[in-house]
Amino acid sequence: MLADKQVSRCPLTLNRRRFLKGLGASAVAMQMGLLEFASSVMGAAPKTAGKCRIMGAFIHPDVEKYWLGWPGTAYDIKGHQELYTKTIVTAAERLGVTLDLSQKPLFDAGSVNAYLEKVAQTKPDGVLLTCMALHPPGWRAVNQFLDKRGPVPTVVFSPMGTSFTGHLQHSRNSKNAFVGATQDVEWLATAVRMLKTVWEMKHTRICIVRGNKTEDKPLDVIGTTLHYIPGKRFPDEFKKVEASDEVRAMADYYTKQAKKIVEPSKDDILTAAKNYIVCRRLMEAEKCHGFSMDCLGPIGRREIKPPCLAFMRLRDEGIVGACEADPNASISSRLTHLLLERPGFMQDPAPNTVNNTLMAAHCTCGAHLDGFDKPHEPFILRSHSESDLGVAVQVLWRVGQKITLMKFTGPQKIILGTGRVLRNIDTPPSGGCRTSLECEVDGVADSRDIKGFHQLLIYGDHEDEFKAYCQLSGIEVVHI
Predict the structure, then answer these.
(1) What is the DSSP string of 175-187?
(2) Is the peptide bond before 71 cis (omega within 30 degrees of 0)?
(3) In the chain, what are the domains?
(4) Residue 316 burial (CB < 10 Å; 0-12/13-18/19+)?
(5) Residue 14: which of 33, 39, 49 has the closest Cα?
(6) pTM above 0.70, yes or no
(7) Residue 244 CB neighbour total at 10 angstroms
(8) pLDDT tens, 268-287?
């Protein structure tokens, strides 16, 4: 079965409605001319080339009813396959995935081998199997496929009633595979999203503005390409940006949506909006899906004003906007956007040894922390704390909110943990960056042992999603 309706979900192809919805105030945005802003700027963004192609199949004997054993005689084989099909197809349409979902079940060795041959010839970007039989044993077919499929990323959905503990042991050692055993049928949409994310990360290009050379650095395992361009490109492009209606509309939006404006002037906010235009133009010119730059160098030389507000806007659109030309934080952001549809907060970690907690701070932070299409958290427009120039943001985090901490730290490793927001920190009286918060981190006896730098803080407990993705991608998970 082929899902012929394809809907792109690449963050760089947001339509007008979703862009305004992401701002959290559609009616206000329309009055301020942001429709035109979205149309001319967003429409120029590059798309991910090609389509993710997923093959899928169901594993069960070709019978009308089971007799005794799980999932039971009352289990409607035809009805459940129709439900699973509908769920998978709907998810594929929403994510813009090309889907080849076979309705003829696999069960004996011959049918599995035939499907393995088809997979080898077709070379899909991922495979989704749904095991619908415990008695008689469908796991012989599942394990046969996993053992012989090669490196193709594979997700196996095992709905309640189709596996015991023992059935799930063999697959634990399968590379680039994850078994989702759950009673939640909607998890099938997560399975499609994970496979799409693996593909997206392999086709991602992140523009990094640093140094004097233009070069590509493709990464092993995750597959992302780091595209470096000279640092002078940013100030050179900025000189070409005028205070257009688009720039003024963006400046007006943040002026009106801010809970308070402390240091920045009207001209500062206009300059911050111009920085956003520069980021988008450079991404478009270099055909990239995200942006990071050595910002502190040119700020220190007074060549540019801080791009903190531009990075905030990018993150709230689902696009990487990362400080300090940090490639691993950029990859972490892209992964978070694709997998969870919400921004992460790239931050400087400062252990609080008195409370045994973590203080996290940076001068830019997405505000739509619950999701790109959810209302934004309150924010205050400040200056960049280290230079006292331009526009930075203080986003006020929800106290008591459960959070995930993660960072991609190399081709085959992610550090991961969870915690909870305790309080926001004001600067002054404290030093450090404008968005600052204190949080507790689960399972850490001494906050000085927390691993990494520029880790992302993300609303919600997403430890299991990241672990599943990492198992599917061949990436090691290390507790933070």
Answers:
(1) TTEEEEEES-TTH
(2) yes
(3) 53-201 (3.40.50.2300), 203-479 (3.20.14)
(4) buried
(5) 39
(6) yes
(7) 16
(8) 999 999 999 999 999 999 99
